[in-house]
Structures are given as C-alpha cells and as structure tokens.
Amino acid sequence: MNRKQRRVEKRHDRSAARTPSPSPHAVFTDAVRRHQAGQFDEAERLYGQVLTADPGHAASLHLLGVVAYQTGRYDLAADLISQAITITSEDAAFHSNLGLVLAETGRLDEAIASYRHAIDLAPDAPGAHYNLGLALRRLGRLDEAIACYRRALAIKPDYPQVCSDLGIALHDQSRPDEAIASYRRALDLAPDFPEALTNLGIALQDQGRLDEAVACHGKAIALRPDIPQAQYNLGKALQKQGRLDDAAIAYGRALDLWPDFPEALTNLGMVRQAQGRPDEAVACLRRALDLAPDLPEAMTNLGIVMQGQGRLDEAAIFYGRALELRPEFPEAHYDLGVLRQEQGRPDEAIASYRRALELKPNYPEALAHLVHQRHTLCDWEHLDGLDRRICDLVLTGQSGIPPFSLLALPATTPGDLLTCAAAYARQFQVAPLPPTGGDGGRTGDRIRIGYLSADFREHAVGCLLPELVECHDRRRFEIFGYSYGPVDDGPTRRRLAAGFDRFVDLRTLSHFDAARRIQADGIDILVDLQGYTTYARAEIVALRPAPIQASFLGNPGTTGAEFIDYIVANERCIPPGHEAFYSERVVRLPDCHQPSDTRSAPPAPTPSRATCGLPGNGFVFCCFNASAKITPAVFAAWMRLLAGIPGAVLWLAEANPWMVANLRREAAAKGIDPSRLVFMPHLARPDYLARLTVADLFLDTHPYGAGAVAADCLWAGLPLVALCGDTYVGRMAASVLDAAGLPELIATSPVEYEEMALRLAREPAALGQLRDRLRAARTGSPLFAPLRFARNLEAAFLRMWEIHRAGHPPEPITIAAGTPGGMGCSPGGANTGGGTWPSISPQSSCWSPG
Question: What CATH number does the domain located at 432-596+811-845 have?
Fold first, then answer.
C-alpha cells in the first residue's frame, strides 16, 4: 500500500468516528412507530436497545411488556410492566395495561386492583373504567360492571364497544329491553359493527322476536362471512323458528369454516333429532364429544336424544356425566328433572328443579315445572311464595312459562293468562309457509277441516272426540286427523283413526315438513287441539299451514298467538266482556263448549263399595280431578264438609304416593281422621266410569275445574257441585252443568259452594231428584247430543270460511241456538241425521255493558 492510499484510509476512519449513534429517544420513537405498525419483532429489538442504554427507561419496559402481551407471553408481560411501575408508579396507563395482562391469565382480583389504581390516577380515562367493567362482569359482579360501563360512557358517549358490552351485562341480568337499547346505541355509533349485530340478534331471539334476530345475524354475516360464530348464532335463531332445514344449513356453514366447532355440532345434533333423524343426531353429538369431551351441553343433548327414544336409563347416565363435568349447570339439572318426572319420580324431579333455580334464580321453565310438581304432590308448604314468583315473572314478560302452569294458581286473573300466553307465544313466531298453489287433490267444493293433536288416544281430549268426528257432515266437509303424539293402540285411537276421512301420523316429520304436509293436503281450517299442553308442537301451527286456524278443546284458554285466528268456546266459558283477554276472535257455540261421546265403551259392572275401599254406609263425596287442581283452600272446604257430615268420606283419584301422604297429613292437621280419605288407583276407562256410579256427590275444584271429567260424572248420573270462576278453566264445569239443564248446581262464591254441597249431603231426596234428572238428560239434553254439537261447530266453520272468502280479517262469531233434528249418527262417519243448520249471527268485538 502506498503512502497516498494510507492517507485516504486515515481520513475515512476519522470520518467514520465522527458519525453519531442514534439517541435513545430516537430509537424509542422508531420502536413506537414499528410497534404501531405491528412489527413486533423489530419493536421489541429497539425497546431492548433503549433499555441497554438506559435500564431505567420505564416507558420502554412498559411497551416491551405490551408487545409480550400482544404476542401471548403473559408472564413476561406482567413482569416487564410491573418493573415499569416500580420505576414510575404514577402512570395510569401502566396500571391499566397490567390489569389487562392479569385478567388474561385469570388473576381477576389483581386485575381489578390495577384498574382501580389506574382510575385513581386518571379518573376521566374511559378505557380503565371499561376494562374494570369487563373484569367485574367475568366475576359475575354485574351491578358493578354496569356502573363501570356507564361511567365510561359518561366520559366518552361515542364509545360503541362499551355500548355493546353494556348490552351483554344487561342481558346477563335478564334486562332484555335495556340490553337491546344498548346494542342499538352501539349500532347507531357504528352501523358496521358485527359483534353488536350478533349480540342484538341473541337478545331479540331470547325475547322470541325471531324474525328480527335472523335479520340481525344475517347482517352480521354479510359484514363478516368468515366468522363461524355468526353462522352458528343464525342457526340457533332459525332452529328456534322451527326452520330446521335452514338451521342445519347455517350450522353446516359454521362447520365449513371451523370443522372442529363442537357447539355447532351439538346444536346440529338437536336439529337432526327434531327432524326425526336420531341416528344422525347421535353421530353429531358423539363427534362433538370427541372434540370436546368436557362439553356438558353435548352430554345433556345426547341425554335428550336418548330420552326421546325412550332410553331413559341411558339418558340419566348422560345427564349425570354432564353434571359431573359442570355441577353448576342449571339446564342439565332441569333436564334431569324432566326425566325424573317422566320416570314417575317426582320427589327427585323437584330436587333437580330446585337446584336449577338455585343456580339460575330467574329460570322460568324450572320454576314452572317445580310449582306444577309441588301442586301435583299436594305439597303446599311455602308454596304461596313460589306461586307469587311465577306471577311476578309473568308480569315481567318472561317467555319461558307455559300458560298451563298458571291455571290452578288462585291469584291468576284472565289478564295474567293473556300476558303469559302472549310472552310464551313469541318464541314460535315465524314467517308463514309460502303458498304452493296446489289444491291437495281436492274434488268438489267440500271444506277441508284438519284436527291437529297429540292426544288421539286414551286421554281426556281424545275420549271427547270420536262421535264428533263421526257426526261431521261429509257432504259439506272432509275431515282430516293429524297426530303427532304417543300411540297407545287403544279403542279410542282405533275409533278415531277409522272416523277421519284421512288419518296422518306426523311423528317422524320435522315441524316444517309436518306443516308442509298439512298445506299440501289443502286444509282450509286447521283446528289445533293442543295449544301448549304436553307434547305440543306449536311450531307446526306457527308456520300457518292453513288459511284459517282455530284453537279448540285441548288448550283451555287463550294461546296469545298471532297465528291462531279463533278460539271456539261458548258464552259461559268466555262471557261477554272477556274478549279483551283473548288474542283470538271468540267463537261462541250455543250449548256446551265441548263435545261428548255417547257411543264409548259401556262401563264395567258397578262394583261394590267394599271393592272400591269405601265404607258400607256413609255419604261419599268424591273428586277425580287431577291432583294439581286441588288447592289448600278447596281442600280446607272439603274438610269442613267432612266435619259437618259424620261418617262421610272423601274419595279421590290417587295420583302418586306423596299426594296421598300429604293430603292425609293435611286432613289430620284439620282434625279429620285421615282414614276418611279414600284413594282410587288409576283404572281402565270402563272401570273408572263404573266407579262414578258408586259415589254420592262430585265436588269440583277451583280455580281450575273439571271439563271431560264433569261430563263423565253427569253421564254416569253423579251430581256435581261447581264454583263458577273468572277464567276459562274455572267455568268449564259450569258450562257442562248448563248444557245438562242443572244450572242450580253452579255456585257463585266459595261459601255458596260449601253450603250447596252440605245441603245436598243432608237431603237425600233432593239428591235423588237430581239423579233422576240426569238419567233424563242422557237422551234429552244438549250436553249429550253429539250430532247437534257437530252441526253447531260446522256452522262456525262455515262462517269462518265465508269471512275468509270475502277477504275480511277474522271477526267474532256467535252461533245462535237452532233446532237440529236427531241426537245420534250412524257408525263409520256417514251422517244420516239430517238436521237443520243453526243460524249465524256476527258479533261485535266491543265490550258489553254489565
């Protein structure tokens, strides 16, 4: 190397020595820029460089901890941010971000302390209030969480994320209206906010506003089609609507996006179960459990499938496993209670319902079942409080309480029943089926009537129907029966199946396919005999498979449903002025509200008193109503009657051993020898009817009285005393007595009820005269005139059809008493009685004076 080259190199070296290194501040600024750009590795290197130069640089420690948090290294994040706080303890952001890290690792109490410290340092920082609210909500401290969210919004009103999370907390507190308002506020601030749309959809779904829920989920999916949870939530809403095929598609899309989505598989399994495809249901649920062996919902649903197949012991095993996985799983306790109830183990069912309510105090289904079971067992200790809780839940608009659970509660008003039914009906509101344009292969101009029920069997409803079905005029009507309930193959079912022009079993069809079948048959008037009672499938009727839909017989009261146009009753059951308590237009028949069957199998030979377990002498009061209808007030009145008639006994239907023990204990507490209560076991219908002739006087219950049983008593010649109440079910026995020509047996007050029963027990001659009149009523009263009833009902059907064909909305109908000829009909469904048609008088829907 020559001298000139050496001089150049030396000059270069001196130049390099003069280039300054970046300052720690510049490096920090560059690190922050790269951090904000998501370049975490480079940001982390640069923060480390700052700390090499200045180990006490608190901001770099803090942000290095934030990088660790954002990349899932939570222990390192907590350590670095804690070091920053040791250096600078007065920076609110440090404490707030430490809270985030602690919350992420489940150290919620420590996280809350950090958030509170941040708030002390910066009271007007909305983020700290919001984060504190998130931690409190995770601990279930909802009141405090809501207060934090509201404080954050007071500081920063245009904070959509907080509005959405406030909605979640309100929803968790069962404050649906406020939750919905909060979600809507979030969407006002950020219309393209898919999480808020999804949460709004869930809240609307819980309120039964399913069409709105589906629309919200659809919008969320349009914004983020790649989110499997959005498809899943859409599937849940569609599933609740009964749109099972659409729900299955939504769950399928969720699984396309995330094949290992156990919750979607779980719900798809329940869709397959509802579609009548139990093998596919089991496959879905077992796949869900393969993915998530500790998923109790899948275990519980597998139990439900097994229970639906009648495999009750296996179902109990799955419910038990679900509760082993999650002992505080209220739905599993509830489902186990339903199983125990079906197994005839009501004491265990009650224990399960109680536990479900301990875990979820506002669990309407569990409360309704608990109260019903307690009434069924006549277990009245502290029951008043539970009854009040049900009424309170009804008044808050809870949708999970079936109206049937209120019928026997003494404080229930007609308005309460409408409120309850309307809330319950919301869960079934769906878009109606689109028209098909077909006529179901119709020939001629006969009106097609479809009767829909789960009770075409040995059941109170089924036993009232056969002769009505047989007496329908086939010149004017085609009569279809649609069955979806248990099959007992007894004489009632065989007779009904033969009596309908077409008898269709819908058990294996989904709600949607069942409705499609009814629509394809061209049914003009669908008569729902089930309402919300046991085995009900209101989802079928909600799809509106027929242009006219009426509620009759099986659901004793309003359905509260927009998809039911009419309720068929009479003036006694729904008196003028009560129209406001019914969502349907009222159809009033001229005689009784229910048909009768005069051609059922004759009763067995009359047994002796000894055979029935009754004393040879002494007056026999009886009541064979369901035990759930017996109230403490009614039972106290019965005990006073026994006290007033020495040697008298009270003969009751034995529902279960607990009911027997409880009533005997109650009798003893009132000074009555428990042996004066005699219990009749469950018997075949002919034997049951034969025993009615042995008793002296039937005592009806109130506020929920007898319907079919009242007619059975009068047919057997057994007089009945009833108290006419304020609700449909409290007036059914009065309707039966009116139609039998015995209105003097209808009491208008509890005092009159007791006095009437006491007088008849002391006046055997008066009782004998009543028996003579009942023998005459079997051939001469409207109560036992099935052809007459059929003509009156057909007149109502014709009027419904005329109103519809004229393009008018449903309107109230009153069928005036006519003079139908003939009281019988020929076997096999052919009408030979002729008979004149009753006149029809449209009725105003306004309140009547008085």
Answer: 3.40.50.11380
